[in-house]
């Protein structure tokens, strides 16, 4: 009997612990897309973090109903969270996160927090003078539930311009307190933050994802206690890819990305499960809060972003910048819809696919078929087991290597040059090294994908007829 070296390796590691996702992390990684919805006072002030500063706090923007410091200025007249869900569903996102409170300090729900003198918080919907007299979060949660979408909140614990705390959590009113700012002590600040996150983490049911940004302000254990099933908490960590540009390989590095270990790439042999995510904007500009006259990325710009993020095992938390009416603008809705349709169309029906436990898998392609991409997935319930693999194509009686890789995990897409096979051909996934017997969820080959061209650039009536499709 021939004992193959990998069998010895598997046996030798069979007793070692192998990190696997918690139910919260598995839920988080079950979707390619999370909708990261930016909608708050910044929508009526200006983009940035915080969106409020000395230059715009007691100023009325030309388009706004009042000063940024005035709760009445947040006045989306057609606010419709059900309309948001149409784009979220069209994209194929299965979790949506809303900025319950961002850097200005404005709260999208009627918070019961009080200031040190016992008066109400004073910068939120539902207060006297606010244009919106209902709980925006509750509407969002109701719409998400009806759409079957998981939900969560963004609440920046460290920063709150209204309460004189800047991005690092430091008091930013050492020299001057502007009218309508409240200069609270550290102790009062944390008391108010604790009250507000307690409301967010108890009044709206189970959250799928919690976003706090920068520090936790000592509230991490409260989060674990109140929302044990949420991702993005100390118990269910996830890590950022290192850039908001949408192009992590270019801007951070093209190494393989692991769902284990911390940092931008994780580490293959770390003992903790840590899903990775990347958060690009839909705007070409680096803008989160809606502003007019910006440029929305086209489908052809989004496709390489999809491959660089989702195709390298990460979850894409794609920006939704709700406009001043409270809606997803048509031009945005159109790209979310196109991107979702493109993913379903491109990766929905493989030429050939297989799955199961093992170290080697083959696919058979019929003569005449054309392939240009391979998608690999491990069943991550069992952890990330593959360490090294080679994709090969049959050639005569041997095999010709197409690509080598290390990490597979939740999803790995390899784009290859398009190959038309003239006779029946086999593709092989050969796993050279693994910590345990790999469980492959999908090894699939696909034909080149069609990118449906947008109506605006069909060039009706001018020049030669254009092809209705192009490769993506
Ligand atoms: C909200 O949007 C949904 C979906 O587009 C639509 O069916 C509904 O009529 C809208 N509601 C209002 C009040 O405009
Ligand atoms: C925060 O405020 C402190 C004190 O005013 C200041 O030293 C620090 O530079 C500010 N940090 C940021 C990120 O604005
Ligand atoms: C704002 O509060 C901080 C901390 O309580 C205090 O040190 C600072 O002097 C106050 N700023 C002003 C302008 O009074
Ligand atoms: C909410 O999550 C908890 C675990 O944190 C679970 O026991 C409970 O069943 C969940 N509730 C719903 C309604 O899903
Ligand atoms: C195998 O994968 C490891 C990462 O797990 C990597 O460091 C190494 O270079 C790979 N070896 C080969 C031969 O590709
Ligand atoms: C196989 O993977 C293990 C675990 O990552 C590593 O220690 C070992 O060096 C790898 N072996 C080869 C031949 O790459």
From TrEMBL:
Residues 71-344 form the Glycoside hydrolase family 29 N-terminal domain. Keywords: Glycosidase, Hydrolase, Signal. The keyword Signal applies. SMART domains: Alpha_L_fucos (SM00812). The keyword S-adenosyl-L-methionine does not apply. One of its GO terms (cellular component) is lysosome. Residues 1-17 form the signal peptide. Residues 453-472 are annotated as: Disordered. It is an enzyme of class 3 (hydrolase). GO terms for molecular function: alpha-L-fucosidase activity. GO terms for biological process: fucose metabolic process; glycoside catabolic process. PANTHER family: ALPHA-L-FUCOSIDASE, ALPHA-L-FUCOSIDASE-RELATED. Belongs to the glycosyl hydrolase 29 family. This is alpha-L-fucosidase. It comes from Symbiodinium microadriaticum.
């Amino acid at each position: 009997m021939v004992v193959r070296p990998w069998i010895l390796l598997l046996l030798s590691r069979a007793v070692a612990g192998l990190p696997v996702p918690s139910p919260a992390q598995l839920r988080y990684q079950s979707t390619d897309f999370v909708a990261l919805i930016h909608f708050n006072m910044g929508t009526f002030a200006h983009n940035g973090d915080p969106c409020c500063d000395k230059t715009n706090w007691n100023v009325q923007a030309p388009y706004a109903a009042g000063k940024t410091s005035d709760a009445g200025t947040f006045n989306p007249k057609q606010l419709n969270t059900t309309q948001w869900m149409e784009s979220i569903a069209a994209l194929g996102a299965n979790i949506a996160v809303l900025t319950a409170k961002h850097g200005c300090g404005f709260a999208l729900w009627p918070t019961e927090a009080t200031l040190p003198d016992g008066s109400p918080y004073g910068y939120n919907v539902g207060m006297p003078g606010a244009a919106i007299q209902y709980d925006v979060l509750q509407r969002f949660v109701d719409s998400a539930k009806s759409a079957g979408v998981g939900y969560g909140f963004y609440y920046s614990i460290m920063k709150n311009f209204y309460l004189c705390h800047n991005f690092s959590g430091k008091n930013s009113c050492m020299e001057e307190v502007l009218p309508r700012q409240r200069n609270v002590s550290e102790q009062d600040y944390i008391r108010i933050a604790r009250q507000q996150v307690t409301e967010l983490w108890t009044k709206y049911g189970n959250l799928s994802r919690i976003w706090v940004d920068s520090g936790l302000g000592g509230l991490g254990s409260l989060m674990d206690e109140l929302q044990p099933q949420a991702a993005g908490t100390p118990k269910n960590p996830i890590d950022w890819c290192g850039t908001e540009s949408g192009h992590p390989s270019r801007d951070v590095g093209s190494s393989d990305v692991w769902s284990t270990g911390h940092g931008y790439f994780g580490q293959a042999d770390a003992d903790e499960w840590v899903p990775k995510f990347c958060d690009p904007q839909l705007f070409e500009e680096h803008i989160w809060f809606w502003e007019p006259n910006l440029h929305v990325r086209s489908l052809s710009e989004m496709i390489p972003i999809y491959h660089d993020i989702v195709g390298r095992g990460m979850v894409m938390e794609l920006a939704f910048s709700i406009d001043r009416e409270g809606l997803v603008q048509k031009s945005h809705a159109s790209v979310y819809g196109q991107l979702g349709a493109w993913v379903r169309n491109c990766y929905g029906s493989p030429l050939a696919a297989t799955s199961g436990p093992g170290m080697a898998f083959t696919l058979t392609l019929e003569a005449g078929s054309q392939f240009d991409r391979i998608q690999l997935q491990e069943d991550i319930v069992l952890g990330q087991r593959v360490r090294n693999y080679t994709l090969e194509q049959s050639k005569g009686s041997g095999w010709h290597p197409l690509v080598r890789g290390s990490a597979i995990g939740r999803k790995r897409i390899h784009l290859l040059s398009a190959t038309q096979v003239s006779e029946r051909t086999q593709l092989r996934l050969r796993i050279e090294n693994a910590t345990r017997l790999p469980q492959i969820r999908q090894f699939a080959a696909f034909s080149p994908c069609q990118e449906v061209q947008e109506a605006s650039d069909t060039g009706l009536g001018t020049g030669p007829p254009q092809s209705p499709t192009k490769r993506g």
